[in-house]
């Protein structure tokens, strides 16, 4: 196992484990918290007194049980999602370190976690710029995307749009600035994944409009049948063939790279 960590360039430690657990739980914690805060306006009005909880139309928004759950969700978002993200985002800047010193918050655990999250990025040597803030930039993009769950049923429309925009901006930044220590991306991979993502988002938005039109009986039966065939086919091509195939190809490349590394550094004795 130690040899695998060495070949993969991974240095296991306690703080690395905490950072990994945090990343694994980040999306689910944020998504669940924003879902608890989902709004379902009564009679399509946006007045706060008329709003209901999206997942239980009988429950008034931020009243009774939902008030306690919503308050807990806000605490989770503040202390486990937003503040750690801002810490990682601002970690490379000297003025932020001075601020932490003034507030007596330069704890060793925070420093270690900051080093773990920003480790894969360049370290800003002479005449170069430090791109470590991109680790926090990615988490900030995740927060922006997941925050769309607040809009209830409209999130099925807004999430793909925000995800496409944020993913495109992050991909362009990575391609232009090359912030990673190792050059693991190329333009062709970016183009393929962006087209796949665009098709997936178009599929989701089309499904939403299809569902709305079908409920209103404005869609002709023949067109509806065609779309029912086309949309599942696109889903199959994107999520069953294209994306899994790309992941398998990347895993195969990693295994070959590890095998070549092992043969190069452990030659068979003659």
TrEMBL record:
Keywords: Membrane, Transmembrane, Transmembrane helix. It comes from the Eukaryota. The chain crosses the membrane at residues 21-40, 68-90, 131-151, 157-178, 190-210, 222-249. This is Uncharacterized protein.
């Amino acid at each position: 196992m130690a040899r695998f960590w060495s070949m993969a360039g991974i240095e296991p430690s306690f703080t690395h484990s905490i950072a990994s657990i945090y990343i694994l739980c980040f999306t689910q914690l944020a998504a669940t918290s924003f879902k608890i805060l989902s709004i379902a306006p009564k009679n399509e009005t946006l007045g706060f007194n008329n709003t209901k909880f999206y997942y239980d139309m009988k429950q008034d928004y931020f009243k009774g049980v939902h008030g306690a759950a919503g308050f807990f969700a806000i605490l989770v978002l503040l202390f486990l999602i937003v503040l750690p993200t801002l810490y990682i985002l601002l970690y490379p800047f000297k003025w932020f370190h001075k601020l932490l010193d003034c507030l007596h918050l330069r704890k060793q655990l925070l420093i270690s976690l900051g080093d773990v999250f920003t480790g894969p990025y360049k370290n800003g040597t002479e005449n170069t710029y430090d791109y470590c803030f991109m680790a926090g930039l990615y988490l900030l993009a995740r927060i922006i995307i997941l925050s769309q769950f607040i809009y209830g049923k409209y999130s099925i429309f807004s999430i793909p749009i925000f995800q496409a925009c944020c993913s495109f901006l992050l991909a362009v930044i990575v391609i232009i600035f090359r912030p990673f220590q190792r050059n693991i991306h190329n333009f062709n991979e970016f183009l393929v994944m962006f087209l796949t993502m665009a098709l997936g988002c178009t599929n989701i938005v089309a499904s939403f409009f299809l569902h709305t039109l079908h409920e209103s009986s404005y869609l002709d039966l023949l067109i509806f049948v065609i779309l029912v065939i086309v949309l599942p086919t696109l889903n199959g091509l994107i999520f069953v063939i294209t994306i899994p195939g790309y992941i398998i190809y990347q895993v195969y490349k990693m295994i070959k790279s590890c095998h070549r590394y092992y043969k190069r550094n452990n030659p068979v004795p003659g």
